[in-house]
Amino acid sequence: MRLLCALVAVVVVAGMTVVALSLQSSSTGVVAFGPVDQVAIGGLGLVLGAGILFLGRSRVDADATGIRWRNVVLQHELPWSAVRAVAFDRKSSWASLVLRNHDEVALFAVQAVDRERAVQAVEGLRALLAAARAQEPTAPPLLYDPRE
Predict the structure, then answer these.
(1) Residue 80: CB atoms within 10 Å
(2) Looking at beta carbons, which pairs linking 35-44 to residues 24 or more positions away fall under 8 Å?
(3) Among residues 93, 90, 49, which one has the least CA distance to residue 71?
(4) pLDDT on residue 124
(5) pLDDT digits (tens, 9 = 90+) for 5-36
(6) How would DSSP label each residue in 105-126?
(7) Residue 86's pLDDT band (cuts 50, 70, 90)
(8) Fewer CB within 10 Å: C terminus or N terminus of the chain?
(9) 62, 74 in Cβ contact below 8 A?
């Protein structure tokens, strides 16, 4: 996805640059185009390109202690003890974390369009979750049952 965003950003900036350079100082009778308009169109192309690149910033990092992810703007971090499952349904566009409090958090960095790479990422996240669960201490048995 990052490569696709970069490619689209380059195409947008190149297209707007061509338009800016080909816009000559002229008047259509209603609107007069000048150098300021050329600079504005070129600047708009750069802003649009940067915005498209910004969409490709999504990232997921995980290790034995927890998972960290960034979805476009905000960065989050959770320990594995807060995660119940790593979900990636067939009809989903991206993977998600199912938390123990029944919330679900999208992981935009793991998208269905990445195909085999996304499957490997989800399998890796599930393996880390399973390893973290194996390390969790089990609760000691109760001396009495409070329901009785």
Answers:
(1) 20
(2) 41/16, 42/16, 42/17, 44/16
(3) 93
(4) 94
(5) 899 999 999 999 998 888 876 666 677 777 88
(6) EEEEEEEGGGTHHHHHHHHHHH
(7) very high
(8) C
(9) no
Q: Is 68 exposed, middle or buried (0-12, 13-18, 19+ CB in 10 A)?
A: middle
**Phi, psi (degrees; rounded to nearest 5) at 62:** -145, 150
DSSP bridge pairs for 104: 98
Task: Spell out the CATH class of 59-135.
Answer: mainly beta
* Residue in 135, 136, 58 with CA at minimum distance from that of residue 96: 58
Per-residue b/e over 33-48, b at no fewer than 16 CB within 10 Å?
eeeeebeebbeebeeb
Which token pair is 78? 């959770």
* Residue 61 C-alpha from the chain's centroid: 12
For 97, phi and psi rounded to 5 degrees?
-105, 130
pLDDT at 135 over 70: yes
Q: Which amino acid is at 14?
A: A
Q: In 9-143, where do the E strands start and end?
A: 26-27, 32-33, 59-62, 66-71, 74-79, 83-87, 94-99, 104-111
Quick count: other Cβ atoms within 10 Å of Cβ 56?
Answer: 19
